[in-house]
Amino acid sequence: MFLFSKVKSFGKKKSYLLLLFCGYLVLFPILINAQPSQPEEIFQVCKVSWLDIPGALRCIGQYLITLFFRIPVFLFAMFGILASLLLIGIGWILVPSIVNFLISLSLNTEFYNLLSEQWGIIRNLALSLVILFLLIIGLATILGRTEYHARKTLVRLVIIVLLVSFSLTICQKIIEIGNSLTLYIADLLKVGPTDFFSIKFDDKSIDIRNIYENLWNALVSHFGNIANIFLIDGDLLAFFTEQESATGVKGPILFLIGLIALSYWIFAFIVAYVDIVLIVFGIAFFVRTAYLIALIFVSPIAFLTAALPTQEIRSVFPGFLNWDNWKKEFLEWVFMGVPLIIWLLIALVLMGGIQSAVSQLQQSAISNQIGTGIVAGVQSSETNPESKLREETNFTFSQLITFMPVIAAAVALHIGVKTSHSMIKGMVEGITRGIGAMVTSAAVITGAALTAGAGAAAAGFAAARAGGAGILSALRSGLKEGVTTFGKATLRRGLTEITKPIPAEIKEAAKAISWVRRLDAGLISEKDQAEKYAEELYKAEGAKGLEREILRTSTPRIVKEALLRKYLKEEKTLSDAIIDNPEIQKLLMRKENENLQKAVLKVRPDLAPVFRKTLQDAMAGMKPTDIVKIHPKALEKRAVFMKLGAAGLRAIIRGGTEKQKSAIRENYAKLVETLSIRYLGAPIRLDYSSSGALKNDFFRNRRQIMALINTLRNPPPGLPARRQAVLQALADELEEIGIAIFQRRL
Amino acid sequence: MVTEHKKSLSQEDIDFIVDLVKMYNLGPTDPFSPEMEEILSKAKTEEERIEIINNLPFNKIMDRLKEILEGKFSVKDLPTLLKEDLNISNFLAEKIGKEIAQNIFKEEVPQLKKEEEPKKPTPPPSRDIYREPIE
To answer: Which of A185, A244, A477, B27 has CB 3.0 to 4.6 Å from B57, enough for a Cys bridge?
Structure first.
């Protein structure tokens, strides 16, 4: 509090301002380490000449604006780093040990001996079914059904009944063969029997945990680059557009810092992918164990059905209970370990092989040829800001070389798991889609973070303006330019492409959340999508929803146009709030929106000058049915009123609303007053506050009004014919309205 | 009682009244017509002119219709009111009232009571010369 009050009192003393200014003059060159009269950088964020105070202020101001974007992007990047750390930790410590345990469990035959008691219950059930089978054979033989004939089936049944009693032993032996074969293949490369993730290959030891070590090293080396989110150029124009800044950085910088933030999330997703593939690999073995247990349990019944392989028996004992299906499933699960362990070996061999190849590549001349953008990109000592920036943006791609062993091993495991049982394959595909959706979401969130920055910037300006901060008015144009160019940037188009892989079900469900819907609308870049969005919004919220989104500043132009078309189609006209909005008026000036503009001019011909048209053009060809639709706001304008003509007025008098009639009354009274001054030399003042008041005043001034009409019809000689025609038309209008007032129609 | 559906006169209703006034030659409906000018030329003051305009048959009918719409009178009272306001015969008041009621209010109006003719005094019975007084 003390410090705060001191600072406050310091700010009030203007003499300190002079001192500060002098301090600036003395210290500024030192701060920026500049040589006199040579433009220099301020922490790489902009370039100004020595003592160029306005330039420095502008530079700092522009940088402060960009902070609204940089801070959310930085937070987003930090979350990416945290997610990467968490996933590396989980993968390094937990995943290999858990997966090892699951594989060992699945390959342990002793485990199945524990099931004999439970298996015995099912066996007894199967044996009791033998009586039923005998009965079926007896009846079928009497009925002459050849496929059940006792001669063919009875011997078979007796043999099967004997086999039922030994089904557990038979299954155990087959599983043992499968497990032994799996372990034999693993042993070929010294895998296991307890650690399946470490092999001896070519006298080298390869451990799958190296994947995490590689990922960790890459993350550590890339961590420092997060500072670039704040340190890259603050030039406002280069920040939003493709222009080059004074420090030589080519924009749009906003897009580039977004990529930097995204790179941390790509890290996270690579780690997540590796984690998940390994876990799924372990789960595949775990599921194998579970399935084999289930198949051993039902084996007595499945064996029994082998005695009578008929259609009827298949219907009574379907699926795993039937010998045909059981046999296929059992063998598939038993020997599933063999291809899986082969793919694990392939993964480990690939990892070891590619790792050494990459090391050689990094040390060899080839790496230099690939250039600073790839392998050497992270370690570059280049000081040129642009090339440094390019290195940053290429970082994600440069890491592909470093990640190659990791990705190759993970992909090998992925393929291995996919070639296993169809159920596991489906599971892997589901998880892969999930990861894809998560990557997409991260990209969308990057966009959202940038949008949030734009929103924060706008809010900041609004607050500053409310506080009367006049200095910010100079920056307003900068912000406007920034937001406009941001809207024009290709980011939205890119994000739309990225969101396409998100499953339609997720998209639909997410649309129930209003901000997701808005975000979704913000990413629309195609006309069809915009039309669809307008259709859905109208169904959900009606015209009010359309109006709200039309007036929302953040709604993309293409969406606004679609919403406007939908609004016009459904409501036949546009609301006052929409028509009077300057942004919408600007939008309607586009050539593509000529139809929308015409529709607006039909109800608001007074806006003709806004669209650079004449009132004559706007009202040309208007029929009485069109005139009745003219908005009262437009009728209040004298020019529009005078263009209506007697027929137009008659149409409004007969079919118009009370507001339209009120506008006519007002204009009539004012016109009578103006014309009477000009042509009669004395004003006729009519009270137009209500219909009754105007009627009374009209009765009182009827004679003068009649005189005025006669004067207009017989103007002084020498007037041009065009002027005479105008006066004639005015006389007709005054007469028309006069009669309407007398007859109480107005 | 006035029909509950009608709250104000439509443009078509006003058209009908204008035509009716013209058809029965009740007075002017155009404030700028020579007929109106002729009527108003009799007035000497501004107030008189306004009074004349307000008492024009068209305005009188419109006033009464407004009162009926406001519920002050019933459509059934219309012939009587018109007869008093416009100083017209029963027959004409009934005819106009009936037309307005049918076309504007979609109602029927009862006939006005026929004007009672003064009863002729019954002559005193003449003396029966053929009748002999009873004595």
So the answer is: B27
Would you call B31 and A702 a contact, using CB atoms and an 8 Å cutoff? Answer: yes
Chain B residues in contact with A691 by the CB 8 A cut-off are none
Quote the tokens at residue A383: 């000081």
Residue A97, pLDDT score: 81
Task: Give the nearest partner residue to B31 out of A653, A655, A738, using CB atoms.
Answer: A738
3-state secondary structure of A200: strand
For residues A5-34, average pLDDT: 50
Rg (CA), chain A: 42
Burial of A260 (0-12, 13-18, 19+ CB in 10 A): buried
pTM: 0.43
Q: For residue A669, name the pLDDT band (cuts at 50, 70, 90).
A: very high
The pLDDT tens digits of the residues spanning A285-335 come to: 888 888 888 888 888 888 888 877 777 777 778 877 888 888 888 888 888
Distance between A491 CA and the closest CA of chain B, angstroms: 59
Q: Are B11 and A706 an interchain contact pair (Cβ–Cβ within 8 Å)?
A: no
Number of CB pairs < 8 Å for A and B?
Answer: 38
Q: Which residues are CB-contacts of A103 (< 8 A; sequence separation ≥ 6)? A: A192, A196, A282, A285, A337
Which residues of chain A make contact with B29, given a CB cutoff of 8 A?
A: 742-743
Q: Count CB neighbours of A178 within 10 A.
A: 23
Distance (Å, rounded) from C-alpha A376 to C-alpha A361?
A: 11
Cβ neighbours of A706 in B, within 8 Å:
31-32
Q: Does A657 touch chain B (CB under 8 A)?
A: no
Rounded to 10 deg, the angle between the A514-522 and A422-466 helix axes is 90
Comparing CB atoms, the residue among B9, B32, B53 nearest residue A706 is: B32
Closest CA to A283 of A447, A402, A420: A420
Q: Return the SS3 of A76.
A: helix
Take residue B38 and report the two structure tokens written for it.
Answer: 């002729």
Q: Determine, for residues B14 and A744 on separate chains, whether the beta-carbon distance falls below 8 Å.
A: yes
**Hey, which residues does A206 pair with through a beta bridge?**
A199
Q: What is the DSSP string of A399-464?
A: HHHHHHHHHHHHHHHHHHHHTS-HHHHHHHHHHHHHHHHHHHHHHHHHHHHHHHHHHHHHHHHHHH
Interface of A with B in 73-102 (CB under 8 A): none
Q: Chain A residues with CB inside 8 Å of B32's CB?
A: 702, 706, 709, 735, 738-739
pLDDT at A28: 42
Nearest-angstrom CA–CA distance, A312 and A137:
12
Q: Tell me the per-residue pLDDT of A84-123, one tens digit each, with 9 for 90 and over.
A: 899 888 888 888 788 888 888 888 877 777 777 888 888 8
Closest CA to A401 of A423, A427, A378: A378
Contact B50 A699 (CB under 8 A): yes
